[in-house]
């Protein structure tokens, strides 16, 4: 939780706890809850499930339409729960280095990775952010999150190591 408000005052996430975070890794993480684009061409049923998961996360009914004016300047439950919104609205002032992963066929559309990358770059231009989009298709045994943990990072900007090794090295480095 990036939110520094007292929404959950007893959860332990305060400035002292956040100061100990030295690096962040996102494996197929949703970032902009109002971005339901589907650049990887995942099946519509998988996209619907992704949308419903986001609705559930903020206690909305399944298939609650995102307000068309729900952008980073308008109050909206999905928008304000989005990690990209939190980054863009001051929930953190000095984030640690970040590593982002997604796949072409990820059930969490890879546009979410772009959303977080753009939010971080916009707010923190000099922040160390690594972004990898691997070419595993929807339904591939390595299409999502920990499914690709032991798979080769086949993004052209990667050194071709196993994702788990890259993540461990990244965390040890920072």
What is the H-and-E element order?
A: HEHHHEHEH
**Biggest sheet, strands in spatial order?**
1-2-3
Broad structural category: alpha/beta
Radius of gyration: 16 Å
* Residues in helices, as a percent range: 25-40%
Overall tally of domains? 1
Instruction: Give the oligomer, counting copies of the same chain as homo and different chains as hetero.
Output: single chain
Q: Gap between N and C termini, in Å?
A: 20 Å
Strand proportion, as a percent range, falls in 5-15%
What average pLDDT do the residues reach? 87
> Total number of β-strand segments?
3
**Which stretches of 5+ consecutive residues score pLDDT under 50?**
none
Shape: globular
**Count of runs of 4 or more consecutive helical residues:** 6
Supply the key terms.
alpha/beta, 3-stranded parallel beta sheet, globular
At a glance:
The chain contains six helices and three strands, in the order αβαααβαβα.
Write a structural description.
This protein is an alpha/beta fold. The chain has one domain (15-173). 31% of the residues lie in helices and 9% in strands. The chain has six helices and three strands. Strands 1-2-3 form a three-stranded parallel beta sheet, sandwiched between helices. The two termini are 20 Å apart. The model has no long low-confidence stretch (mean pLDDT 87).
Topology diagram in text:
Blueprint: H1 15-19, E1 24-27, H2 44-57, H3 77-81, H4 83-88, E2 98-103, H5 111-123, E3 129-134, H6 163-173
Parallel strand pairs: 1-2, 2-3
């Amino acid at each position: 939780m990036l939110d520094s408000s007292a929404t959950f005052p007893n959860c332990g996430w305060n400035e002292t706890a956040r100061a100990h975070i030295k690096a962040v890794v996102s494996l197929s993480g949703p970032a902009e809850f109002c971005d339901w684009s589907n650049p990887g061409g995942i099946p519509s049923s998988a996209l619907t499930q992704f949308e419903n998961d986001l609705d559930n996360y903020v206690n909305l009914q399944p298939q609650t339409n995102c307000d068309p004016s729900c952008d980073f300047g308008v109050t909206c439950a999905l928008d304000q729960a989005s990690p990209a919104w939190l980054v863009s609205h001051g929930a953190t002032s000095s984030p640690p280095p970040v590593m982002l992963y997604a796949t072409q066929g990820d059930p969490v559309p890879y546009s979410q990775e772009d959303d977080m990358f753009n939010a971080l770059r916009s707010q923190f231009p000099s922040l160390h952010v690594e972004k990898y989009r691997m070419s595993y298709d929807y339904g591939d045994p390595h299409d999502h999150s920990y499914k690709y943990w032991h798979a080769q990072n086949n993004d052209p900007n990667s050194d071709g190591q196993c994702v788990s090794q890259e993540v461990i090295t990244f965390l040890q480095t920072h």
